[in-house]
Specification:
- This protein is mainly β and 290 residues long.
- The protein is built from 1 helix and 20 strands.
- A 4-stranded antiparallel β-sheet has the order 1-20-19-18, with no helix packed on it.
- A hairpin with a 7-residue loop joins strand 18 and strand 19.
- It is globular, with a radius of gyration of 17 Å.
Length: 290
């Protein structure tokens, strides 16, 4: 997630790269992992093909455990001295990535721009494009961009709520809100409450989750937040350690524990990033209740 507008999307990414990271133990687990591992456990860490400033939304491959989709920005806002990793031809695209090696397996053309987040159902991916503000619909069977859905403002977090049969988009235009959008008509049918510091969105089971960042300085902290499905209001929170957690997506595959994956900025100097996958059981998480 990287948007309040196209301008602030770039500045937000730049600021996020300045944030601190926690060290790792010998097993590769972030030190300071919250004391609720029965309900929230990091189960995998995947390589990315670029720096955090080059990357936006993520989404797991529906069948292949170690593969995921990631959107790349045409205009990455990297810090001075950082050396970008993506080639010019790989920018502004939707990539399919092998998480074990970080190798790009496929490139899918979009609108050659900058992006927010990715959502999906069984047949489609939905990618928020920042300028103009719209949601791009990609057919997974053909890898073709089949529709562009205009929205009221640039969307950061994006999720497909199967219970509603609708998209939920984190909008920052005028007043922060979660816009509930009918993907068939493009109409906004509901407007839910949102915090402007919210990042990615994911619906895991019946739980609507978002990542959140406290600020954009060296003292920044990441949280996982549990949202009320009907109002969007925060009803629980728990810390996320080991870097700044932004874009996220649910993970739901046969034989795999339900959970979510997150794009994490892990090094403020180099801009290094990883994708982490978490197993999630909300009933076991030690939520701080609001």
């Amino acid at each position: 997630m990287k948007t309040h507008s196209k301008l602030t999307a770039h500045s937000l990414v730049t600021i996020v790269l300045v944030l601190f990271t926690l060290p790792f133990d010998q097993a590769g687990t972030p030190l300071g992992t919250p004391p609720n591992s029965a309900g929230l456990t990091m189960v995998a860490e995947f390589k990315t093909p670029g720096l955090e400033c080059e990357l936006s939304g993520i989404y797991p491959h529906p069948l292949r455990t170690n593969q995921y989709y990631i959107a790349t920005d045409r205009h990455p806002a990297c810090r001075q001295g950082q050396r970008t990793l993506l080639q010019e031809s790989q920018r502004g695209k939707l990539l399919l990535v092998d998480g074990l090696s970080g190798r790009i397996l496929k490139m899918i053309a979009l609108v050659d721009g900058d992006y927010g987040d990715i959502a999906g159902n069984d047949e489609r991916l939905f990618i928020s494009s920042l300028e103009p503000a719209e949601i791009l619909e990609v057919d997974l069977a053909t890898d073709k961009l089949v529709r562009r859905i205009p929205v009221a403002g640039p969307a950061g977090g994006l999720e497909f709520d199967r219970e509603r049969g609708a998209l939920i988009a984190q909008l920052f235009a005028r007043m922060p809100q979660l816009a509930v959008i009918d993907p068939k008509t493009g109409d906004t049918t509901e407007s839910l409450w949102s915090d402007e510091s919210a990042m990615g969105l994911a619906k895991v089971g019946k739980d609507l989750l978002c990542t959140w960042v406290s600020s954009f300085d060296e003292f920044a902290k990441s949280e996982l937040r549990l949202l009320d499905n009907q109002t969007g209001k925060v009803i629980g929170r728990t810390p996320l350690s080991g870097g700044v957690h932004t874009a996220m997506a649910p993970v739901s595959r046969p034989g795999v524990s339900p959970g979510f994956m997150v794009l994490v900025a892990t090094d403020r100097g180099t801009g290094a990033s990883v994708v982490r996958s978490y197993a999630y059981d909300g009933s076991q998480v030690q939520w701080k209740r609001d």
